Task: structure prediction
Amino acid sequence: MRRISIFGATGSIGQNTLDLIRRDPESYTVVALTGGQNIAQLAADARAFGAEVAITADETRLDELRAALQGSGVEAAAGAQALVEAATRPADWIMSAIVGAAGLAPGLKALEQGTTLALANKESLVCAGRLLMATAEVHGARILPVDSEHSAVFQALVGERITEVERIIITASGGAFRDWPLEDLAGATLAQASSHPNWDMGQRITIDSASMFNKALEVIETREFFGISPEAIEVLVHPQSLVHALVGFRDGALMSHLGAPDMRHAIGYALHWPDRRHLPVARLDLAAIGQLDFRAPEEARYPALRLARAVMARGGMSGAVFNGAKERALDHFIAGRLGFTDMAVITERVLAQLEAEAGLIDDAMTLENVTRIDDLARKAVDLVVKI
Ligand code: NAD
Ligand code: MG
Result:
């Protein structure tokens, strides 16, 4: 029996992970499940899977969670500290699927225990990639990528040497607005940005796909995870979302990974790694699909990609500023206080502002410093939005 925990169990990635566990209950013991506001889902899953503990990130909802778990034998806990403590419970495999920088502290704690971390939470790599990778190394822990593009690259690299890689190409659907006239983007509404052409995901990553902030995070994630130079990372728009990534080797060969746009591919690969097991995902019928399309991403449509390049060039903890500012700008867009295209404008402004503050982003990369910078970036966005 493998002991597993799922951080962000109530979300899109968390539910897909539980779907795979549910099909093979004899193989797993569920240790901790965590969620946020959806107490009913968290409690129902904790009961159904016989979890040891269920944790909500919201301290004010502990009583509600306790009541929902009454008589089940599942412990209840709440708050950011409880989340970090849950990561110390012995487990063989932990899914990191909290959305946003909030996933960093529990992920680090899991790695400190030497636990294998299946990483969907790309924001933690963007904020503190070096810290995560070094923590894994010191404690002999493994990080397995769950983002579909990074899982695809990881799979294309099996049996290969990273030193022979010339380039890594990650694909992007182009999001909800890939064919919109540029002048209409500023007026894009929340509902329009919240519907993805191919993937069924959480709301935040769906909006980030429309703006390509998601791909911008993924470019940085590629750099941090695979350790290759920024110039070797390319983004390719591929509207069908069937080719997830390509790895180009020094002999010119390109190895690619194709699969249905279903996150259970990448989650299942990380769950069963290094084995491959049957997964309940659609098989591609390429003759029926007929054609695959590719195009270069337009700079004017997706300014976030340019910002990602600037962040990688700047280095230090610039990624934490970028992610914190982007997350807060997204909060304001969701709340109706910012327009769609303002998100990139404000993120760029906050990046310039905090990078100019002497020494700030060149401090040692510790959890405390990353958290402080994340907070400063969010406050700087609030100042611009004037709330
Ligand atoms: P989601 O919004 O559906 O779920 C997020 C989960 O995190 C929920 O369980 C929620 O309760 C929890 N959460 C939210 N805020 C929290 C906080 N402050 N503290 C603790 N927990 C909190 O998100 P998702 O789409 O499942 O994405 C999860 C992560 O996986 C993100 O980092 C995302 O970028 C990444 N990812 C998602 C997909 C996808 O298909 N959904 C694909 C690739 C990568
Ligand atoms: Mg992805």
Notes: Residues 147-149, 218 surround magnesium ion (ligand 2) (CB under 6 Å). The first helix runs from residue 12 to 22. The CA atoms of residues 237 and 297 lie 6 Å apart.
